[in-house]
Give the backbone structure.
Amino acid sequence: MRIAVVTTSYPTCEDDPAGHFVETEVAALAKAGHEVRVLRPEPGGAFGWPGAPARIRERPSRAVDAAAWTVRASLELRRFAAERVVAHWCVPSAFPIALGADVARGASARAELEIVSHGGDVRLLVGLPARARAVVVRAATRRASRWRFVSEALLAALESTLPKDDARALRACAAIIPGSIVLPDVGDDARSKRSAVPARRLYVCAGRLVASKRVDKVIDYVATSPNHGTRRDERTLVILGDGPERAQLERLATAWRMDVRFLGTVSRRETLGWIGAADELVHASCAEGLSTVVREAEHLGVPVTVLA
């Protein structure tokens, strides 16, 4: 079967932390014998770290780049003549790219469409005006054979914003399927990192430094937690990731007089090495139904604290 995977997040190199869950799915489809084509934007434009909204706010001209990519991807999708389309993120991969290609091809040539929502697109939909949200959701539910969510919480978040008929249509085509996770062996790297922070309790937080990730709450937690019998000066917090909140978070860490190390954006292997070295992964995002980094920590046997 010819399968097109449309995504705005996909690794550009082996250690790129972006979209590895999509890459894992693509590898599984290819292994099953399908002809798979990945449609993704070039790096450096509207899409990439720390996310399209932040990148477009930083440089508004990138909105033009985002619009141009949706047109190019729709054309490429038509040329490929896929029998099945897997659109990771409802917006913009399913709407308008896959649905736009549908209109151009005509009803008789439409491919099976599966939509996959990870979190960012659900937040976008929930934040839209009700009328705009209804247009997108109705188009998607009419067309998709399945709308896959990585957690029940994400589906419920979107469902709760819809009129009853739209909510029923969404639920009828929805499926809850967490994405597959394949981890490299980072045991040696984790042990090396652990030995670099001897005799201290090591906390790790990984993610974009944006308001919705609530990394300030992580810093407060590590600074004030009475657990584990350690003083503040016996704790180290490693923060992996970058974004517009970094300067403010650095000031907060300085105010607490705590050992907080901001390592910026690092490779996926580097991230997994630090997670594997941690005594505790701390996660405080208020905008995810099922966090990949939490699942990775659990796979590595690292205790996880999720802050309310």
The mean pLDDT is 89. The two ends are 44 Å apart (CA to CA). The CA atoms of residues 202 and 278 lie 5 Å apart.
